[in-house]
Amino acid sequence: MSVVIVGSVAFDSIETPDRQVEKALGGSAVYASLAASYQSPVRLVGVVGEDFTQEYIDILDRKNIDIGGLEIVNGDKTFFWKGRYGTDPNERETLVTDLNVFENFKPVLPEGWERSKWVFLANIDPELQMDLLDQCENDPFVGCDTMNFWIEGKPKVLAGVLERVNLLFINDSEVRQLSGETDLISAAREILKMGPEIVIVKKGEHGAFLLTKDSLFITPAYPLDNLLDPTGAGDSFAGGFFGSLAAAGDVKMKNLRRAMIYGTVLASFTCESFSVENIRNLTLDIIKERFNRMVDLVRVDKEKI
Amino acid sequence: MSVVIVGSVAFDSIETPDRQVEKALGGSAVYASLAASYQSPVRLVGVVGEDFTQEYIDILDRKNIDIGGLEIVNGDKTFFWKGRYGTDPNERETLVTDLNVFENFKPVLPEGWERSKWVFLANIDPELQMDLLDQCENDPFVGCDTMNFWIEGKPKVLAGVLERVNLLFINDSEVRQLSGETDLISAAREILKMGPEIVIVKKGEHGAFLLTKDSLFITPAYPLDNLLDPTGAGDSFAGGFFGSLAAAGDVKMKNLRRAMIYGTVLASFTCESFSVENIRNLTLDIIKERFNRMVDLVRVDKEKI
To answer: Which of B303, B304, B305 to mutate to test binding with chain A, by most A CBs within 10 Å of its CB?
Structure first.
């Protein structure tokens, strides 16, 4: 089944100690859509300026991604982000954020998309997430992402969004900030009281866990020899997760577990190249091979008692 | 098969934000021996002063632990350690370290123990680890632990020990220090060049991984609701690992994986109480139940390709 993905479509300039790229294709909706598209058709909602290139549109268009919800604003420029990573790739410094078209963006679901069953609200202003939720008509399964900027800046709107979504993706430092708890599982448990029935805490190189009222699933990260650029890893995780879950068609624990591994795998591919170079060029078989290596990495048989 | 365990036997005074204990039973050999004893007979080598109590000897004696290698030095005092944990239990401050009997300790294998097949050298001066290695006659499987203090203070002796052991247990910050590599798997790979054919990197709340030349196994930590006192967690991990491995009788990957989970489980029990309160009162069935919960936490089926 289709997944609606709402988020940013951007030009990213990225510096690492070894390399840099200028105005590469980026943005939360782009990474999430590419990651999801290997398993489910995607309906992308976002906005770009008139400077957005046909080359980048083609990258999305060649995949199973419907860009009918991608607004192109004449006379304005595409969202631009510039960041720098240190020798420790977990340390990121934002150098430039030009909102441009994003400043006045109001996401609109194209006709026929209001009844989509699967919706992922990537990390954008919670007011826009709320706008989008108001347009959904068919009680979809909704996941959302957020970040420290909104937790500090718009806590009330964010709380309203959390009351209405089924799943929250959040990283370790953000879940501590949002919950006030230091221990990550206690922190995630606090989030369950805020609305979502599923919380996924992403811990970067330390993997991720999924918590519900009565279940816990833990996965390590896929071990990488060549972590080049973690930009978009979290968005790819969410996209890979949603693509798998929508393809499975329900949120039984078994499917949530599989989706966690697909998320982990898609995030790992993203980290191995700059921008979307890797994640745009995969096949489902390559993805599944890494999925199966993930299963092997942790596999132990039960003991007889 | 029996496991020889060499390390410290100590009085520990521990402060946490909520509680404190005075002169509780502690020491690397104590935690490791108790943890191992649920699956294999243990032969403990260590030293205490005349102030060591019968009560503490009884705790070891009641288990499957032969204390024939525990030297009691009249006229001297037992090794004493005092530490304090902050609200973040990963932050530990050492307040007092009185070596006492440990200052002049020379570990001696009692007659008949030289041909033991399984040897664990807990975290002590690498010169003592070397002494002990010189007494082994039967080409045993040897694991050792170490710490930042020896990596800085006795790098050459430590290098000599590493050339002669099969397995190194080491934590995340120490493996970075010893290897000069930031990435943990790259760091562990460097250690494999120093001698051991197996490296186990312990990452506290983030779990642990085991690396050999051609295998990698990853496990998360057991999620704890009530982490009280992490003192001895690493030693319990190593003990649980060795107890399981010696019981299995060989170092096939399947048995190394099982041993990793037993190590993880025993470490988790240690963290749930002060001193050895929890780890001295377990049963193998209780341990196996938690083992099976660990298996459930990460279980995913492979995908068909």
So the answer is: B303
